[in-house]
Every structure is written in C-alpha cells, then in structure tokens.
Amino acid sequence: MPDDNNTIVSQLAELVAGIARQSTDTDAGLQELVDSGAEHVTGCQYAGITLADAGQGVTNVIATHQYAADLDAAQERYREGPFLAATWEHHVMHVADLSADERWPRFQQFALEHTPIRSVLSYELFVDGGTIAALNLYAEQPHTFTQESIELGGIFATHVALAWSMMRRTDQFRSALASRDIIGQAKGVVMERFSIDAVEAFELLTRLSQESNRKLIDLAEALIESEHPLKRRHRQH
C-alpha cells in the first residue's frame, strides 16, 4: 500500500481511538467518520451509512450530502440497489458506471434522474440479528473508484464498524445506568408508600412487572410519573 494510504489508515485509527476516549455521541462520531471517508478515499465525493431492519425497512443513518439520503430512500421504496446487494448477497458491491449497470432498473432510473451519482461502493458493516448496516461511497463520474479506492474503502469500513460497535456499547451502558436510576427512584416511592425495605420494594416491582406483562423500566417510569408528574416532565425537557 502506498505511503499516503498508510498515513490515511494511521489517521483513521487515531480518529477511532479518539472517538472511543471521548465517548462521543454516536451520531456525531459517525458523522465525523463518514466525513473523513469522503475526504480520504480516492475519488469519493459523498458518503453515508445505511441501516436495514426487518421491521422498519431501509433508513439513512448519516450522510455527507442529500444525495446519499435520497438513494437510501430509493432503495427503501424499490427494495433493490447496491446497498441491499452488498448486505444481502455480497460483502462489497462496486458499481463502476450506474448508467450502464442494469442490475437494479428502478433504482438506476431514480438515481440517474434525480442525482449526478455514477460510481458507487458499498461495504457491509455488520449484521446483528435482523439488522444490517453498510457504508456507501459515491462519486459523480463513472469508473472513479480504482482498486486502490476499493482496498482503502474496505479498511475504512472496518474502522467504521469497530467505532460504531464501541459507541453502541457506550450507549447501552449509559442507557443501563439511566434505567438503574429510574428503577431506584421507583423503589424509593414503593418503600415510602408501603413502609418496606429496598429488597421487598424491588421484589414487589418485579412481581408487578411480570403480572402486568410490562417491562420493569416502563413500570418504574409510570410509577414515578404518577408520584411526581411535574418533576418527571421537567426532567424530560
């Protein structure tokens, strides 16, 4: 790999490490990464991350330009396109000239009529249950992406997947802490109302959760809302 590409890979690794250290907001971190990809992958002008969920369809997560979001919307509408092919059929999908590639006719027609995009690279990022994600790189001229671009884009996609995984774990940890705090407040309400200790209060909440078929966190939030409605609304705002 040329020295310039080695430098880019090193910078990308530092960027991922910095995001992990700073506990960056997931959207902000992903935006920083796709901006870097659009800037450093040879020939790339625009970049975006796409998510497909069995229940929610195809959505654009982050994009450097509206073109990327529009193409994701087209893939959602027509259920075809390079992103879906990359995640469902191949790990990497390279479209050298969209005007000549007829694998996805409805997507192709939309792209040619509504965007100047002619070259596409799509990389599978991860598959998690019924959810799949991909990194997409775009250029306006056909035959823009060289073999070097494809290799560098693959390295970039690996780093994006790693960074996203770290940020998702951080989000889950923060969510768990927030849930623990809410359940703790609900326990306090039950302890005060029924003059019982913490263990008995938690057992009572757990039993109510099972009997009502509601998640414990939902039950706790409802209990806090009923006990302190003004306080709860204030915290949400």
From TrEMBL:
InterPro entries in UniProt: ANTAR, CheY-like_superfamily, GAF, GAF-like_dom_sf, GAF_ANTAR, WH-like_DNA-bd_sf
ANTAR domain location: 163-224
Domain of life per record: Bacteria
Alphabetical list of Gene3D superfamilies matching this protein: 3.30.450.40, Winged helix-like DNA-binding domain superfamily/Winged helix DNA-binding domain (1.10.10.10)
Any one Pfam family match given in the protein's UniProt record, by short name: ANTAR
Record flagged with keyword Membrane: no
PROSITE patterns: ANTAR
UniProt key word Plastid: no
Protein name (record): GAF and ANTAR domain-containing protein
Source organism of this protein record: Mycobacterium lentiflavum
Keywords: Kinase, Transcription, Transcription regulation, Transferase
